[in-house]
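Milestone M4 deliverable, item 7.
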Amino acid sequence: MSFLVDAHCHLNEEDYADAGEGLIQAFPSFGLLGAVVPGWDLASSEKALDLAYRHDRIFACCGTHPHDSDSYSPEVESRYRAMAEDPKVVAMGEFGLDYHYMTQPKAVQQAVFEAQLQLASDLGLPAVVHCREAAEDALAIVRNFPDLKILMHSFTDGPEAFAPFRDLGCYVSYGGILTFKNGVEVRAQAGISDPDRILMETDGPYLSPVPRRGKLTKPWWAWYTLQVLARTLDRDPHDLADRVLANTLDFYDLEGALAPLKEATRPVDPSLELDF
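Output delivered:
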């Protein structure tokens, strides 16, 4: 019997406006100790922190996504510094590089990415990094911060691109893509990942895992992804769940905040067929 934390879920997204509060209240029924809610700009970061204030199982990250790099400014950075003083802010993010949609020029993305890594380093907080089709440039920047704890959130560029990040000691979080029929490269990547650096996420409301594709993501559906990961790694799902939980508590420094909630949370048996 095991517990999980959804390491990355956008409960601050408008898609959750009607259902979000109810989902958070249901966490204890599905073995979920908590969830980490990242920002993608200043307004969403403030909303994440507001959710964290109202729920003891929610924690926030502050950051500006590469799609919104042009909104980053000294004023925004100053606000992030102030927000980071709150114990409910457990990391900076999500930020990084995205060359798939290219909503911002590469040079702008890179400058804002490096600035936010420096901010995380200054604040002594871990960094949650978004990287899509930009691994080479992201790696060149990440190498400048060898002492920074970094999570490659939902990294899907495959094992060859991921290996250098693994070798630097970066963490990685896997979500619904791992369960998709076309998720072969992600499963291959998971096969070379360090088990002591793996987290589970949903990235909700996006990318609901099989067998819940096409539905509004529920944070406890991270269990479905964990089961696929256990089969991919040929690991006992109980042992893997315990390892993933320990990794998550370590990365976000959540042991003290979440350990007391275990008694009020019903654990899940990840070796059974799930239907929730």
